[in-house]
Amino acid sequence: AQSVTQLDSQVPVFEEAPVELRCNYSSSVSVYLFWYVQYPNQGLQLLLKYLSGSTLVKGINGFEAEFNKSQTSFHLRKPSVHISDTAEYFCAVTLNQAGTALIFGKGTTLSVSS
Amino acid sequence: DAGVIQSPRHEVTEMGQEVTLRCKPISGHNSLFWYRQTMMRGLELLIYFNNNVPIDDSGMPEDRFSAKMPNASFSTLKIQPSEPRDSAVYFCASSRDGAKNIQYFGAGTRLSVL
């Protein structure tokens, strides 16, 4: 079975600082990896995905993530955050076969202050 | 293109009443997922369908919960009778086979059971 661990439940940062949100996964088979963002009182929006190929993936809003198979990690990074990046971020994993469900981490709340 | 549409957005009901949540997936998507989000438990998968057939309902908390997908464009999640501990945000998501399990989420239904 697959599982996802988000290592930080809350990450407070100042505006324009870099940020890294950590995610580790567990799976004995190949998986797809995702980061979703949830703004207050909204649904989840896909931020970026790793399906195959290049281990560095770029997403919307200047975010990027690096897939590290040996460390089973998929950490999310942004070099300079904005107040508007304040949200909850979810890492998720799914098997690379059609029609299977996502397994989500518990989420990390990113709070950006001025 | 219209996204995943959920209704109602908010539902307030009294304990013991029947509650029905509705979801219209994105046209052409053949997998549909129901999730529940609470502060304590995070995002939990309740049930998912592929081609209108329930694939995994192991996340459904108990017999008070039921879900149906009578056709490719509509699904319901019913709670009967409702209890205060059912208060949560319920999300519906859909995906398309061949699209690497990328799920698109609705805005959610915030349920309050008094």
Q: Which properties best describe this structure?
A:
heterodimer, A: 114 residues, mainly beta, four-stranded antiparallel sheet, B: 114 residues, seven-stranded mixed sheet, 0% helix, 54% strand, globular
**What percentage of the residues of chain A does DSSP assign to strands (E)?**
over 45%
Mean pLDDT across the residues of chain B is 93
Uncertain runs of chain B are none
Q: Which word captures the global form of chain A?
A: globular
Compressed to H and E, one letter per element, the order of chain B equals EEEEEEEEEEE
Let me know the largest β-sheet of chain B: 7 strands, mixed
Task: Please identify the structural class of chain A as seen in this structure.
Answer: mainly beta
Structural description of this entry:
The complex is a heterodimer of chains A (114) and B (114). Chain A is 0% helix and 54% strand. Chain A contains no helices and twelve strands. In chain A, strands 2, 5, 6, 10, 11 and 12 form a six-stranded mixed beta sheet that branches. Chain A has a four-stranded antiparallel beta sheet with strand order 3-9-8-7, with no helix packed on it. Chain B has no helices and eleven strands. Chain B has strands at residues 5-7, 10-13, 19-24, 31-38, 42-50, 53-56, 65-71, 74-79, 88-95, 104-105, 109-113. In chain B, strands 2, 4, 5, 6, 9, 10 and 11 form a seven-stranded mixed beta sheet that branches. A four-stranded antiparallel beta sheet of chain B has the order 1-3-8-7, with no helix packed on it. In chain B, strand 7 and strand 8 (74-79) form a beta hairpin. The model of chain B has no long low-confidence stretch (mean pLDDT 93). The chains are: A mainly beta (114), B mainly beta (114).
